Amino acid sequence: MRYEFIIYWSKADESFIVEVPELVGCMADGATYEEAIANAQSLVQEWIDTACTLGRTIPEPKGKLAHA
């Protein structure tokens, strides 16, 4: 996976949040940094699988802040 992950601590959620900006709506969380990353990696694959099933285009990974 080469998609950019943005990771931060959410005090309100008391967990690490991972956003995948190149995949619309793709976010995960976890109690630890490692858990959040693992959850995000699984979710990216699910996002891609679902998009394929629905016949949607899969964005190519562009790298650091390419979405901005």
Structure in a nutshell:
The chain has 68 residues and is of the alpha+beta class. Helix content is 31%, strand content 21%. It has one domain (6-53).
Furnish the topology, listing elements before pairings:
Blueprint: E1 6-10, E2 15-19, E3 27-30, H1 33-53
Written description of the protein model:
The protein has one domain (6-53). A hairpin with a 7-residue loop joins strand 2 and strand 3 (27-30). It is an alpha+beta fold and 68 residues long. The chain has one helix at residues 33-53, and strands at 6-10, 15-19, 27-30. It contains one helix and three strands; from the N terminus they run E-E-E-H.
Structural class: alpha+beta
How many discrete domains? 1
Task: Give the overall form.
Answer: globular
Distance between the termini: 20 Å
Helix proportion of residues, in percent?
25-40%
Radius of gyration over C-alpha positions, nearest whole angstrom: 12 Å
Uncertain runs with pLDDT below 50, 5 residues or more?
none
Query: Strand fraction band?
Result: 15-25%
Mean pLDDT across all amino acids: 93
H-E string: EEEH
What is the overall number of helices?
A: 1
> How many individual β-strands?
3
Describe the strand arrangement of the main beta sheet, using strand numbers: 1-2-3
Which sheet architecture does the biggest sheet show? 3 strands, antiparallel
